[in-house]
Write a structure and sequence with these properties.
Layout lengths: L3 E4 L1 H8 L3 H14 L9 E2 L6 E5 L2 E8 L4 E9 H4 L5
Parallel strand pairs: 1-5
Antiparallel strand pairs: 2-3, 3-4, 4-5
Length: about 90
């Protein structure tokens, strides 16, 4: 089963701020999620809904909707900033 991938406006904005090389590496990992939404190294988040994958020092936070085969990319960012509370 192939999942569809949707990237939120905020995550797309975060992705576009990164270098082209990093954007490409992250985009490849995101594309791989369509085939395997829970790859090796994926972590289920404890403090919020969703999962995260690592791409070097960057993290991709996403939700999986198995019933409709959809993955929503929620946030992309450096590991030092991605988990900080947004309040």
């Amino acid at each position: 089963m192939i999942y569809q991938i949707e990237i939120s406006k905020g995550a797309l904005k975060q992705l576009k701020k990164l270098s082209p090389e990093l954007q490409e590496r992250i985009q490849l990992k995101i594309d791989d999620l369509a085939i395997e939404p829970r790859p090796d190294g994926v972590k289920k988040l404890k403090n919020r809904d969703g999962y995260r994958i690592r791409v070097g020092n960057y993290r991709v936070i996403y939700n999986i909707l198995d019933d409709i085969l959809l993955i929503i990319i929620v946030e992309i960012g450096h590991r030092s900033n991605i988990y900080k509370d947004k309040n």
